[in-house]
Amino acid sequence: QVQLVESGGGLVQPGGTLRLSCAASGRFFSSYAMGWYRQAPGKQRELVALITSLNSTNYADSVKGRFTISRDNAKNTVYLQMNGLKPEDAAVYYCNAPRLDMSVLWPWGQGTQVTVSS
């Protein structure tokens, strides 16, 4: 069973930056598309960034131009560089491997909290 461990969250001022990491256990990590999701209080979890096994990327409109997803297959790790953070980016951030029907392959990790406040 694959385990996902997210890290790198914290408190940052508006306009600030954070880099999130997600380490995955298990084999064949490089074969899977990976996504970063976020869930704010009272809202549904949403996919904000996706990277395929061929390193193609896609972003939600709300983060396009500010967030960058990348991966290091040798480390079984996916990253999310977040620049120009806004208060509305505050949420718990998770990673997972999306299926075609937009469900996910693996159990959710604990997530990492991002707080954007002055």
Please explain how this structure is put together.
Helix content is 0%, strand content 44%. It is mainly β and 118 residues long. Strands 2-10-9-4-5-6 form a six-stranded mixed β-sheet, with no helix packed on it. It has a four-stranded antiparallel β-sheet with strand order 1-3-8-7, with no helix packed on it. It is globular and about 40 Å long. The model has no long low-confidence stretch (mean pLDDT 96).
Quick structural summary:
With 118 residues, the chain is an all-beta fold. The chain has strands at residues 4-7, 10-12, 18-24, 34-39, 46-51, 57-59, 67-72, 77-82, 91-96, 112-116. Strands 2-10-9-4-5-6 form a six-stranded mixed sheet, with no helix packed on it. Strands 1-3-8-7 form a four-stranded antiparallel sheet, with no helix packed on it.
Roughly how many Å apart are the termini? 40 Å
State the major sheet: 6 strands, mixed
Strand percentage, roughly?
A: 35-45%
Question: How are helices and strands ordered from N to C?
Answer: EEEEEEEEEE
Low-pLDDT stretches: none
Number of helices: 0
Helical proportion, percent range: under 10%
Overall, the morphology is: globular
Give the overall pLDDT as a whole number: 96
Strand order of the largest sheet: 2-10-9-4-5-6
Number of extended strands: 10
Rg value: 13 Å
Q: How would you describe this structure in keywords?
A:
single chain, 118 residues, mainly beta, six-stranded mixed sheet, four-stranded antiparallel sheet, globular
Task: Break the fold down into its secondary structure elements and pairings.
Elements lengths: L3 E4 L2 E3 L5 E7 L9 E6 L6 E6 L5 E3 L7 E6 L4 E6 L8 E6 L15 E5 L2
Parallel strand pairs: 2-10
Antiparallel strand pairs: 1-3, 3-8, 4-5, 4-9, 5-6, 7-8, 9-10
